[in-house]
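Escalation from tier 1.

The customer reports that the assembly of two entities below gives different structure tokens on two consecutive runs. Tier 1 could not reproduce it. I'm attaching the input and our single run for tier 2 to review.
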Amino acid sequence: MTILAKSSAELSLESVRSLYDQLSVHLKDLSVLQGITRLLFWDQETMMPAKAAPIRAQQLSVLAGLTHEAEISPVLGSLIEEFEKRKLTEDLHKELNPYELANIRLATKAYKEKTLLPIELVKAIATLNSEAVIAWAEARKESDFSKFAPFLEKQIKILRQAASHKIQDRAYAEARKINKKARASLGLKEGEECYKGYYQVLLNTYEAGFKDAHLQVLFADLKKSIIPLIAKIKAKEFHHDRSFIQGDWDIQKQVEFSTRISKEIGFDTEAGRLDVSTHPFSGGAHPTDVRMTTRYIIDNFQEGITGTIHETGHSLYEQGRNKEYDNLPVSQSLSLGIHESQSLLWERMVGLNKPFWTYALPHLKAQFSGSSHENLQSASLEQFYNAFNRVDPGFIRVEADEVTYPLHVILRYEIEKALVEGDISVADVPRIWNAKMKEYLGLDVTEDRLGCLQDIHWAIGYIGYFPTYTLGSIYAVQIFDAAKEAIPNLEDHLAKGEFHVLRHWLNKNIHEQGSLSESGEDLIYNLTGRPLDSSLYLRELTDKYARIYDL
Amino acid sequence: MTILAKSSAELSLESVRSLYDQLSVHLKDLSVLQGITRLLFWDQETMMPAKAAPIRAQQLSVLAGLTHEAEISPVLGSLIEEFEKRKLTEDLHKELNPYELANIRLATKAYKEKTLLPIELVKAIATLNSEAVIAWAEARKESDFSKFAPFLEKQIKILRQAASHKIQDRAYAEARKINKKARASLGLKEGEECYKGYYQVLLNTYEAGFKDAHLQVLFADLKKSIIPLIAKIKAKEFHHDRSFIQGDWDIQKQVEFSTRISKEIGFDTEAGRLDVSTHPFSGGAHPTDVRMTTRYIIDNFQEGITGTIHETGHSLYEQGRNKEYDNLPVSQSLSLGIHESQSLLWERMVGLNKPFWTYALPHLKAQFSGSSHENLQSASLEQFYNAFNRVDPGFIRVEADEVTYPLHVILRYEIEKALVEGDISVADVPRIWNAKMKEYLGLDVTEDRLGCLQDIHWAIGYIGYFPTYTLGSIYAVQIFDAAKEAIPNLEDHLAKGEFHVLRHWLNKNIHEQGSLSESGEDLIYNLTGRPLDSSLYLRELTDKYARIYDL
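Tier 1 run:
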């Protein structure tokens, strides 16, 4: 256990191989420790009795302290320094394979990021997060933004402070350079800075290597297509019948069906669990211990099923991680956006399409075979498909359909970026939020509870996180497209419930690749030979809903 | 977080109060960390998917390393050293209250014990335990003692080694002195050593402050009375009807009934959980997060109910710990024997007696009201009492009734003590075991699987543990007797289901006392004004079963 080895005097500085082995031991211990924290989080959301909340907070705080100590340990620092030196004098590529080199790269990056921030700032961030989340919960309950505003103000300030420690870093300077296409698309002149760089740093906390300039172009494209698409759908004033989705759906039967589908898609219940929690998530300690949750609603089975498929997609990524580099950084998921691509690929590309329901609908009908479900029994595949793919602009992001969802994200992106770059003030948030909701979705927000107070993210300092949801959906389309090219008759396989064909392809091309690439964009380029862009995503989205709504 | 403070240079050595406060912070962090390990153990036994076993072992190993580091930390050492110095020059009793002084005493003792063993020995013990438990499981499966024997040999050797590091300690030298009564009872002459002292050390790992010489006297008394009692019961060749206990008992209904009883006795489900596991236990992280388990058998409801009541007794001790000294050693349970006294008090003193079933039997009948349970419906309280208190000598300790159980324990005590003191060799174990089973219970052991291979304890180095089961039952009788003296009409309360009266008394007199006393014997003496002895226990046991079996 190198977590026990506190002194760099204990290091043996011989061959590159020996250095790498010592680094591995340390990184594995650290990864094991991080897994414990995630397990405690799962327990907190699913099993923990109410009165244990304070002791759980203490446990997480002690673990955070120990983890931080291992992350910034002098032993780790010495090893990394030694590698930096040898980079100049030795050909590391001869001694180490690309996975091993990636481990060194990722460990170096993580160590630098952890040691960049003064410990006082780390502690201040933790304290602010706990306070802000309480204020936010109260503000949301009372739909009173003024109660949350001072804390959002502090979050912006502290995040800018943290970002400014990183902002001088070469990697970020590089990411801030805007390429020609982006400049043109944004109408910027040569040399003109379109933003001040804080947001780039925050974004990269969640989406490694992704340039905000590229994000801006993507989101501009999306707005250009999706706002008119939604307006057209609204103008139709038409919805397909979905009465057969509503009703009285026995929870236990829903659990059985969701569990069945999750296992058929490939969730290994000997290496994970599916439980219930208020806010569904996929987590757990390790690829052999993936803990995911879902939730069921008695009067509508769609949420239970699609939610379970979504979390199963996340869980397959975790269970499919590279076993050869177990507990090492290269085996970890690449970014939040790529993680989301795996959940959305199964939820939307598979679970919201006809091949999947060709297989699953008869099983769903068999599961709910009683006379009280006659509506469902008589629904055709076409009717079912149309009902599941309803577009319905609403206030709440987590309830949004796949057409309106990106606008919820873009709205948040625009506001949070303007906040951290100092272009708007916190007091402006509700007004701007509501104006954008009107512009993008045609809705009048009447209460901040349903508007800018709905998400927990800003309260816990997750600024730069929202874009990964929509990046995930763009990644998902391009990845699924590559799968269709690579797997003959993929849709026939899905229609027969032969999900392993797709899963194995994802295992090999996404899951086992882990963090070998330096960004989601690189992964997509390596996989598809094309850069990430919005064209395929927008074409498929537009075509699909033009058919469904007969536009 | 002092777990982060590695250097004693960071200590502020001013007042006793300030030293104490610094000690508290360190001890609390350590306690929080230890709670995490217990939570992972619970998860392993109840929730963990099968393939996660290897990563869980790694998690526990990393936590063990971090815990060990905190236990032997130089900061802790400096604080303890400082208190040792001030003991001589300052009147600590003026500055600190008895609970605070107990925290210092317990922390000092734990620190000394942890630092006494060389780290190589600690690691060798951990390695041996993992290997031995695998060998034991295989040996038991094949009922082949020879496969386990080499590992038991190694366990004896390593435990003697560990004990010899402690054996020079003053506290143990004191404990090895045999008092006059013990000498007389054992027929020892003045100056004659009856054993070599290793066992005393091992016993005190589980039962703080208890003298093995006293144990020897107690167990000699028990044998003198219980062996003939069992022989008389066997000679009767009679059993009360228990057909109404057997049958087909819906597991879900058993769960409901056990949960109900557990809550009525006082288990706070907002500060704990009741789940199912193969081997029932009570554990968890903290008094606000107690995790207990039980198991149910479809064709006999007795085990589910009594098992749940037993674990509830343990859990009430945990939930009832002193809140004012939360996460500090004085709030911890005093010893394994006292812990077992709390489970056995509720299981036997309450749950195997008429007042409890006067209340509970009508509820049990209501819970199993179907026509398939006519036998139960027509059972009288007397019949039910007789059936629940059946004496049936068998091979397996964990299935034993309250009369035969102590002999299972004494048999193991005699063998394990002879082993560590070098009086017998490992090869002799099966022969001696079987001879004692014949002598004590009149049974012929045909397979080591049902004999000396049945328990995991020796495989994991738990030598000195078994006696605490029977000490628990002796403590329980004296504690319950004190409760009856203190609470007017206690049995009437129990017959009305008013369990809080007893629970509150136990909270105040046992649970909140924690480790304020230095031993179970001291606690009993302080509580009852009488020393611990076997007389009341044996009288009640003999009287009860003489009535039941009409001896």
